[in-house]
Specification:
Strand order of the largest sheet: 4-5-8-7-6-9
Number of strands: 16
Distance between the termini: 18 Å
Order of helices and strands: HEEEHEEEEEEEEEEEEE
Largest sheet: 6 strands, antiparallel, barrel
Number of domains: 2
Structural class: mainly beta
Number of helices: 2
Length: 252
């Protein structure tokens, strides 16, 4: 009984929090705020499945270009991300079969692998298989104020922003991983420069796994965490908005 109680009081947890800074055209700090986020049900799966390298279902391949960087076309959305490993099987020429690293994602049904030497035109096509969820790709801003939730409406952007590039990839060299005391901190950062996301009343932000990143609202299925910004942000055309987001994996 004591062992069970110890286990229940030392459950592994992910603590999400971050801060945002709005800078004027001369770099002056106009606004700074902090937030606590909710890791969604998809976010729980993201950290668990990717850590354990759980593979998803196969997707049919319909074409492969004959090039050193071969573009693979699938019959339905593949859900793979840049840097992920993909297992290709059942293709002729057989040189395509095996495990490859994805170097680019052109669309929801195309991805690129670097094969080194062109392997020849495909004459038969098989399947591709990757992890259950792709890597996180960036953040997305919106104006919705619905309370955050593990699933449903509060687990994704409620009202996507109307400005340009409301969805932005993470800054160069992010995400980062480091020790913070006894916990492992995964840190994400995205910066919206002057001209991006120009809009008043920005009130929500999410981390998304959408591949490739688009300017649509996204769904709960590709949202790992969501937070509300309070006070809301009025981003002018000459302002810069930077959001730094931490996930602390506390362990047991």
């Amino acid at each position: 009984m004591r062992a069970m109680l110890d286990r229940e009081t030392n459950l592994a947890r992910i603590i999400g929090w971050g801060f945002y800074e709005l800078l004027g055209p001369d770099g002056e700090l106009k606004q700074r705020g902090e937030f606590a986020n909710l890791v969604t049900q998809v976010g729980d799966q993201y950290y668990g499945d990717r850590a354990a390298q759980i593979v998803g279902s196969t997707v049919a391949i319909t074409a492969i270009t004959n090039a050193t960087s071969a573009v693979v076309t699938t019959g339905s959305a593949h859900g793979f991300g840049v840097g992920d490993s993909v297992l290709i099987a059942g293709v002729t020429p057989a040189g395509y079969n095996g495990r490859w690293g994805i170097t680019a994602v052109g669309s929801s049904t195309t991805f690129t692998i670097y094969v080194g030497t062109a392997l020849g035109a495909g004459s038969a096509f098989g399947t591709a298989q990757g992890l259950t969820l792709p890597s996180a790709s960036g953040m997305r801003l919106g104006t919705g104020v619905t309370a955050v939730a593990k699933t449903g409406a509060g687990a994704a952007i409620v009202t996507v922003g109307t400005g340009t590039n409301n969805s932005k990839a993470f800054d160069s060299t992010w995400p980062q991983s480091s020790l913070s005391g006894s916990s492992r901190r995964i840190q994400y950062k995205t910066t919206w420069a002057a001209g991006d996301a120009t809009q008043n009343s920005l009130a929500e932000v999410v981390i998304t796994t959408e591949q490739p990143l688009s300017q649509v609202a996204g769904t709960a299925a590709n949202t790992t965490s969501r937070a509300l910004l309070s006070p809301t942000v009025n981003k002018g055309a000459s302002d810069t908005l930077a959001i730094t987001w931490n996930h602390d994996l506390l362990g047991a």
